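@channel sequence for tomorrow's demo:
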Amino acid sequence: MPIKASDVDAAAICRIASISESTNQNPATKEYTMINTYATLKVEKVLKGKLDSKEIKVVIGGGELRLDKYYNGLSEEEKKRFDLRHKYSDDEKQKLFVKSYSHDTVNVFDKNKYYLSYLIYNKDYKRFRLVTYKENLREVKTANKIMIKNPENGKYEELDFK
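C-alpha coordinates (generated this afternoon):
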Protein backbone atom coordinates (compact mmCIF):
# COMPACT_ATOMS: atom_id res chain seq x y z
CA MET A 1 0.00 0.00 0.00
CA PRO A 2 1.54 3.33 -1.04
CA ILE A 3 2.48 5.90 1.59
CA LYS A 4 1.64 9.61 1.35
CA ALA A 5 4.39 12.23 1.53
CA SER A 6 2.69 13.66 4.62
CA ASP A 7 3.26 10.33 6.44
CA VAL A 8 7.06 10.18 6.05
CA ASP A 9 9.81 11.78 8.12
CA ALA A 10 11.88 12.79 5.10
CA ALA A 11 11.82 12.69 1.32
CA ALA A 12 14.73 13.24 -1.02
CA ILE A 13 16.11 12.59 -4.46
CA CYS A 14 18.74 9.89 -3.90
CA ARG A 15 20.69 7.15 -5.57
CA ILE A 16 21.97 3.92 -4.07
CA ALA A 17 25.63 4.39 -3.13
CA SER A 18 26.09 0.89 -1.75
CA ILE A 19 24.23 -2.18 -0.57
CA SER A 20 25.80 -4.19 2.22
CA GLU A 21 24.65 -7.09 4.35
CA SER A 22 21.19 -8.45 5.05
CA THR A 23 19.76 -9.67 8.34
CA ASN A 24 16.66 -11.38 9.68
CA GLN A 25 17.18 -10.23 13.25
CA ASN A 26 15.97 -6.97 14.78
CA PRO A 27 19.14 -5.33 16.19
CA ALA A 28 17.35 -3.84 19.21
CA THR A 29 15.19 -6.79 20.31
CA LYS A 30 17.30 -9.61 18.75
CA GLU A 31 14.01 -11.14 17.58
CA TYR A 32 13.45 -12.87 14.24
CA THR A 33 12.13 -10.57 11.48
CA MET A 34 11.64 -10.70 7.75
CA ILE A 35 14.88 -10.18 5.84
CA ASN A 36 16.09 -6.57 5.76
CA THR A 37 19.05 -5.17 3.82
CA TYR A 38 21.41 -2.37 4.88
CA ALA A 39 22.32 0.25 2.28
CA THR A 40 23.73 3.75 1.90
CA LEU A 41 21.97 6.46 -0.14
CA LYS A 42 23.68 9.43 -1.74
CA VAL A 43 21.35 12.40 -1.20
CA GLU A 44 21.09 14.84 -4.11
CA LYS A 45 18.20 17.04 -2.95
CA VAL A 46 16.11 17.07 0.23
CA LEU A 47 12.41 17.64 -0.45
CA LYS A 48 11.00 17.17 3.06
CA GLY A 49 12.48 16.92 6.54
CA LYS A 50 16.09 17.21 7.58
CA LEU A 51 18.93 14.91 6.57
CA ASP A 52 22.24 15.58 8.29
CA SER A 53 24.49 14.23 5.59
CA LYS A 54 24.94 13.82 1.84
CA GLU A 55 25.10 10.07 2.50
CA ILE A 56 22.67 8.34 4.81
CA LYS A 57 22.46 4.78 6.03
CA VAL A 58 19.09 3.09 5.48
CA VAL A 59 17.42 -0.26 5.91
CA ILE A 60 15.39 -1.76 3.06
CA GLY A 61 12.69 -4.40 3.54
CA GLY A 62 13.57 -7.62 1.74
CA GLY A 63 16.78 -9.09 0.44
CA GLU A 64 18.70 -12.32 0.38
CA LEU A 65 20.60 -14.06 3.13
CA ARG A 66 22.83 -17.12 3.16
CA LEU A 67 20.88 -20.11 4.51
CA ASP A 68 23.19 -20.64 7.50
CA LYS A 69 22.87 -16.98 8.57
CA TYR A 70 19.11 -17.05 7.96
CA TYR A 71 18.74 -20.14 10.15
CA ASN A 72 20.87 -18.60 12.93
CA GLY A 73 18.57 -15.55 12.99
CA LEU A 74 15.41 -17.61 13.50
CA SER A 75 13.63 -17.81 16.84
CA GLU A 76 13.84 -21.18 18.64
CA GLU A 77 10.24 -21.88 17.60
CA GLU A 78 11.05 -21.13 13.95
CA LYS A 79 14.16 -23.31 14.11
CA LYS A 80 12.02 -26.25 15.28
CA ARG A 81 9.57 -25.74 12.39
CA PHE A 82 12.32 -25.41 9.79
CA ASP A 83 14.85 -27.86 11.17
CA LEU A 84 17.63 -27.78 8.58
CA ARG A 85 20.30 -29.65 10.50
CA HIS A 86 19.77 -32.92 8.64
CA LYS A 87 18.50 -31.57 5.30
CA TYR A 88 21.67 -29.78 4.22
CA SER A 89 25.36 -30.14 4.94
CA ASP A 90 27.23 -27.19 6.49
CA ASP A 91 28.84 -26.61 3.09
CA GLU A 92 25.43 -26.52 1.34
CA LYS A 93 24.06 -24.06 3.94
CA GLN A 94 26.85 -21.64 3.00
CA LYS A 95 26.06 -21.89 -0.72
CA LEU A 96 22.25 -21.67 -0.60
CA PHE A 97 20.35 -18.40 -0.13
CA VAL A 98 16.92 -17.42 1.18
CA LYS A 99 15.32 -14.56 -0.78
CA SER A 100 12.43 -12.57 0.60
CA TYR A 101 10.73 -9.65 -1.17
CA SER A 102 7.24 -8.16 -1.20
CA HIS A 103 5.50 -8.48 -4.56
CA ASP A 104 4.55 -4.80 -4.85
CA THR A 105 7.94 -3.26 -4.11
CA VAL A 106 11.05 -2.25 -6.03
CA ASN A 107 13.66 -4.94 -5.38
CA VAL A 108 16.33 -4.21 -7.97
CA PHE A 109 18.17 -0.90 -7.84
CA ASP A 110 20.29 0.74 -10.52
CA LYS A 111 23.16 2.60 -8.82
CA ASN A 112 23.33 4.99 -11.79
CA LYS A 113 19.72 6.17 -11.46
CA TYR A 114 18.14 8.63 -9.07
CA TYR A 115 14.97 7.84 -7.13
CA LEU A 116 12.30 9.78 -5.27
CA SER A 117 12.97 8.32 -1.81
CA TYR A 118 10.47 8.38 1.04
CA LEU A 119 12.13 7.76 4.40
CA ILE A 120 10.67 6.79 7.79
CA TYR A 121 12.96 6.71 10.82
CA ASN A 122 13.22 3.29 12.47
CA LYS A 123 14.53 3.52 16.03
CA ASP A 124 15.34 -0.20 16.30
CA TYR A 125 17.73 0.01 13.34
CA LYS A 126 18.86 3.57 14.23
CA ARG A 127 18.45 4.66 10.63
CA PHE A 128 15.79 5.50 8.09
CA ARG A 129 13.74 2.80 6.40
CA LEU A 130 13.52 3.35 2.64
CA VAL A 131 9.90 2.98 1.48
CA THR A 132 10.10 0.71 -1.58
CA TYR A 133 6.48 0.47 -2.72
CA LYS A 134 6.43 0.88 -6.51
CA GLU A 135 4.13 3.88 -6.20
CA ASN A 136 6.59 5.62 -3.85
CA LEU A 137 10.13 4.71 -4.92
CA ARG A 138 10.11 6.20 -8.40
CA GLU A 139 12.88 6.79 -10.86
CA VAL A 140 13.75 10.47 -11.30
CA LYS A 141 14.89 12.31 -14.40
CA THR A 142 16.29 15.72 -13.53
CA ALA A 143 16.12 18.86 -15.64
CA ASN A 144 14.78 22.31 -14.70
CA LYS A 145 11.99 20.49 -12.92
CA ILE A 146 11.97 17.09 -11.27
CA MET A 147 10.42 14.43 -13.47
CA ILE A 148 9.48 11.03 -12.03
CA LYS A 149 8.77 7.83 -13.92
CA ASN A 150 5.22 6.50 -13.74
CA PRO A 151 5.57 2.77 -12.96
CA GLU A 152 2.36 1.91 -14.81
CA ASN A 153 3.00 3.55 -18.19
CA GLY A 154 6.78 4.19 -18.11
CA LYS A 155 6.33 7.90 -18.91
CA TYR A 156 7.90 10.74 -16.92
CA GLU A 157 5.62 13.18 -15.06
CA GLU A 158 6.43 16.40 -13.22
CA LEU A 159 6.73 15.85 -9.48
CA ASP A 160 3.92 17.54 -7.57
CA PHE A 161 5.11 17.28 -3.98
CA LYS A 162 1.96 18.30 -2.09
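heads up for whoever presents: The longest strand covers residues 32-48.
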